[in-house]
Amino acid sequence: MKVEKNYLLLLVITCAAIFFVNLNSLPVNIMEARNFITAREMLTDGNWLLTTINGEPRYQKPPLPTWLTAFSAAIFGIKSIWALRLPAAIMTLILVLCSYKFSQKLTSEKLYAFISSLIMATSFYIVASARDGQWDIYTHSFMFLCIYLLYLFFTKETHKYQKALLAGFFFGCSFLSKGPVSFYALLLPFLIAFGIVYKYKNFKTRWLPLLAFLVVATIVSGWWHWYTLNFDPAAVAITKKETTNWISYEIKPFYYYWSFFTQSGVWTIPAFIGLLYPYLKNRVFNKKAYLFTFLWTVLSVILLSLIPEKKSRYLLPVLIPMALNTGFYIEYLFRRFRELKDKRETIPVYFNFGLIGFIGIVFPIGGYIFLKDGLAGNWLWFALLSFALFTVAVFIFRNLFRKKITTVFYLTIAFIAAVIWFGLPLSKAITINPDYKPFSELHDFEERENLKIYEFSGMTPELIWDYGKKMEMLNKDGEFSTPAENRFGVLVSEESLKHFEEVYPNFKREHITRYDMNPKGPDSKTHKTRLYRELFIVTKK
C-alpha cells in the first residue's frame, strides 16, 4: 500500500482514534451542561426554535449545534454523554479533512497537506474542542468549509455560482452556530491575507456570484434571529446582553494572546519556529503559501487582540491557520533534518521531541507517585498507559538519535492517541470525592417523601443537567416566591443560607443532606460551592 495514496484514510483513522474514543470519560462542564439542557428540552418539550434552558428562553446562542446534538441524542439516547459529544467530534473530523484538501489545493503537495492536517488534529485546543460539547468547533468548522469554497471560487474559473452558493450556505451555518465570531476571527483574516498574497484577480467575472453568496449567507444567518425577535420580544434584551460581553466582560490587556502558540500543546516549539518568518521563508518549499498562512495566523491573533473580552478558548480559530503554517516547518525537517549541522536549528527539535520522550519514560514512576491514592480499580488502565507511553518514548529517542524525524513525528501522534485511549479513563483516579452525591438521586428522595423540590436562588447548569429535568426556581428576578405546598424541598447554596433563613423565618426548616457534584472532596482547592447544595425540607407552621 502506497502511503501517499491513502492519506485521507489515515487521517480518518487518526481522527477516529483521537476524537471518538472515551468521549464520555470526563464530567460534563458548565458550558456543555447549558447546551445539553437546551438539547434535552428540544426533545422533551419541542422547543426547537424558541430554545430554552430550564424552561427559560435562551437566545444568546444560535441553535444549529443544539439541533445536531439533539438529533444525536434522539438516536443514541438523551442520557448518553458520548452521543451528546459525538456531533462535535464529527465536525472536527470534517475540519481536519477539509484542511487536507485545502492545503493540497494551496500547495499541490500531498505530504505537506497530510503533515499540517495531522498537526491540526493533534493540537491541544482542537482535541479539547472535538471532545467537548461546546459550540466553538461548529462555527469554525462550518466557516472553514466556507473558506475552502471561497478559495476555489477565487482561484478557479469554473462553477463559480455553485461554489459561491455553497460557501454562503456554510457561512450561514457558521453564523447559526455562534454568531459572527468565526467571521471575525477566521474568515476576515483569511480574506485580508489572501488579498495581500494572491490578489483578487478577474473580479469582474465574480461580482454576481459574490452577490449570490451574500444573499444566501444573509438568509441562512439571519432567519432564526428574525424569528425569535418577532415571536418572542424578550430575545432583544438577552441578545443585547450577550453582545455587550464582547466589550465589557472578561476584559484582558491587548497582549493577553501573545502566547497563543502554546495552545497547540505538543507542537508549541514547532509552532513558534514556524512563525519566525525571516528564518523559515527561504527554507520552505512554497514561499507564497507560507507567507499566506503566516499572515492569516498573525492577522487572526491581532484581530482577536483588539476585542476587550478575551478567553483562552477564543484562540481556537487561530490554531487552524497556525497548523497549516507549522506544517511548513515540519515538512522542512522531513527534507533536511539529516543534513542540519547548525545546533541552533537542531537543539529546538531535540528539545521538543526529547521532552515528549522524557515524559513517556518517567510516566510509570511519576504517574504512580501522582495517582497512587486513586489507582484502586484503575490499575489496568494505568498499566496500559505506562506501557504504551514508555514504548513510544523509547522509539522516539531511538529515531531521534538516528535523525529519523519523519518517524519521530508519527510516533508523537501515537503518543497523543495513547493518552486518549488509556489516559482518559484514568481521570477517575484524580477525581476522588468521598462525599459525592449526584443530583440525579433527588428523584428517589422526591418519590420517597412525596414532595416537590425547588432551587432557592439560582441555576447551576451542571446540577440541572444531572437532575434530568427542569427545576423550578424560587428566585424570580430578585423576588422570592413561596410554593403552594405545605411541605416542600429547597436546595440552597452555601452563599444563600443566611438569605434562605431571612426569606422563610416563620417556616420549619429541616436540613436533610448535601448533594455534592464536585469531582474532588471538600479539602481540595478546586472544590466549588456552586457544585453543591444543602437540601432542606420546609414545612409551613
TrEMBL record:
Keywords of the record: Cell membrane, Glycosyltransferase, Membrane, Transferase, Transmembrane, Transmembrane helix
Localization (cell): Cell membrane
InterPro entries, per the entry: LipidA_mod_glycosyltrf_83 (IPR050297), RgtA/B/C-like (IPR038731)
Domain Glycosyltransferase RgtA/B/C/D-like intervals: 61-226
GO terms classed as biological process: lipopolysaccharide biosynthetic process; response to iron(III) ion
Gene Ontology CC, one term: plasma membrane
GO molecular-function terms, A-Z: pentosyltransferase activity
Keyword Transmembrane: yes
Main location: membrane
One Pfam family, short name: PMT_2
Glycosyltransferase among keywords: yes
Spans traversing the lipid bilayer: 7-26, 67-99, 111-131, 137-154, 207-226, 255-277, 289-308, 314-334, 346-367, 379-401, 408-426
Domain of life: Bacteria
Bilayer topology term: Multi-pass membrane protein
PANTHER family, alphabetized: MANNOSYLTRANSFERASE YKCB-RELATED, UNDECAPRENYL PHOSPHATE-ALPHA-4-AMINO-4-DEOXY-L-ARABINOSE ARABINOSYL TRANSFERASE
Protein name per its UniProtKB record: Glycosyltransferase family 39 protein
